Structure formats: C-alpha cells, structure tokens
Amino acid sequence: MELILKEDVIGLGYKNDIVNVKSGYGRNYLIPTGKAVIASPAARKVLAENLRQQAVKLAKIKAAAEEKAAALGAVKLTIETKVSATGTIYGSVNALQISDELAKLGFEVDRKIIKVADVKAVGDYTALVRLHKEVSVEIPFTVVAENAPVEAPAAEEAPAEAPAEEAAAE
Fold first, then answer.
1. Which CATH number is 112's domain given?
2. Tell me: the pLDDT tens digits for 24-61?
C-alpha cells in the first residue's frame, strides 16, 4: 500500500515522502491517526504542488538544521552514572540522558531524533542526532562513574605542596 506521509514517522520516513507499507499498518494506524493519506493520483498532484510552493521554506529549515549541527559538532558530553565495582553501569545510558545533558548546555534536542548504541559500560561513545532528513551530526560522549575519584589526584598533590609552603614561610 502506497501512502504519503503527512508528518515524520520515526523508522518509516519523513513528511511528504511516498512510502510502501503493509495494508494493515496503513489502514489501522497511519491513516486513522492522520499521519498519512493514500497516494492516489490526485493526492500526488497536490503533493507536487505543495512541494513546489514549500521549496523556499524547506531550504530555510535545512539551513537552520545545518547551523544547529555546526553548533552541536563542537559539543563533547560527559555523562555521570552509577557504576558497579566491575565497571558495568546499573541500567544503561540512553537518548533521554543525552538529551538532558544537551539541554543543560542550552541545546533543545528531542530524544526521539537521537540514536545511541547500547551503552552498558564506562567509556567513550558517539550518538547520532538526525536534525533533518539530510542533516545529521555525531556527538561524542564519555560515560564516567558517578562517584569516581576525579578530585583525588588533586588532593594528593596538595599535601605534597604544603610542606614546601611551610619551608618557604620559615
């Protein structure tokens, strides 16, 4: 069954795409929820006219997505999570946590457009953010233990410098 999508459907296609789906999926979900219409010859003509009129608007949307991708390209995230003694994460790091970290930096990114592999251990990973059907950006992120002794090396150096300061004072 050929349908014209009226909005982006994750895993299927983007707005104004003509897609082939099984008839049950189209009749029972996509058409009743208003996400698609049947791709009849009349609907195809209407789609062609709408695309012609929206070409300028789509170029502006793509340019905005490219600007956001350029800004996101310079971002490197650090995600703190609870870790067991063996280094495995309790649970996993998912798109929601990455979206929250980006929001803290001032980037509003919907978690549904973030693709992340299964992250279940401490280390370096990348997430793919699809801002537009032609624009995507990879964001590197590091998963670290929440209670890792990050400041412990600095605390060890401080006592070593303290005797030197006392000797200078005498």
1. 3.10.430.100
2. 999 999 999 999 999 999 999 999 998 888 888 888 88
- Residue 30: CB atoms within 10 A of its CB come to 22
Tokens representing 94 are 């998912």
Answer whether 4's CB lies under 8 Å from 29's CB.
Answer: no
Residue with tokens 């929820």: 33
Per the listing, tokens 């592999």 go with 117
83 occurs within a structural domain: yes
The answer on 138 and 78 residing in a single domain is: yes
For the chain, list residues with pLDDT below 50: 150-170
User: How many domains is the chain partitioned into structurally?
Assistant: 2
The reported pTM is 0.58
Range of the domain at 97: 71-152
Burial of residue 43 (CB within 10 Å: 0-12, 13-18, 19+) is: middle
Give the residue from 10, 42, 62 where a domain finishes.
Answer: 62
Give the pLDDT confidence score for residue 148 in this predicted structure: 58
Residue 168 lies in a domain: no
